[in-house]
Amino acid sequence: MNLRANTIEKLLKQEFSPSRLEVIDESYMHSVGPDAQTHFKVVIVSKKFEGVRPVLRHAHIMNLLEKEFQFGLHALSIHAHTEAEFDPQKNTRSPKCANKR
């Protein structure tokens, strides 16, 4: 795991105490170098999301990671679920980048 992924993981664990957390660097899928650390996907399951609309879950995560965006994080795909909502069989695969050549 790279430095930015570690930072994202640490911040999310501290804030949400998730039962499941995946932080995946998807930079290699885009038109940046494989070590760019600019594009990430987060799959997070937490009791703290109960009663919180998905758009507010995303906003909370985006606000939490504001500094990372200021210092090079370009894109974040967020899959934020409660325990009851999470289905490990559901596909969270990211689409291919339209700009990758």
Q: Quick recap of the structure?
A:
With 101 residues, the protein is an alpha+beta fold. It has helices spanning 3-16, 54-64, 66-70, and strands at residues 20-25, 39-45, 75-81.
How would you characterize the overall build of this protein?
The chain has 101 residues and is α+β, with helices and mostly antiparallel strands. The protein is 30% helix and 20% strand. The longest helix has 14 residues. The mean pLDDT is 86.
Identify the notable features of this structure and list them briefly.
single chain, 101 residues, alpha+beta, 30% helix
Indicate how many domains the architecture comprises: 1
Number of strands: 3
Span from first to last CA?
Answer: 26 Å
**Structural class of the helices, strands and pairings?**
alpha+beta
The percentage of residues in β strands lies in 15-25%
- Quickly give the CATH architecture: 2-Layer Sandwich
Q: Note the overall shape.
A: globular
Major sheet attributes: 3 strands, mixed
Write the layout of secondary structure elements.
Blueprint lengths: L2 H14 L3 E6 L13 E7 L8 H11 L1 H5 L4 E7 L20
Parallel strand pairs: 2-3
Antiparallel strand pairs: 1-2
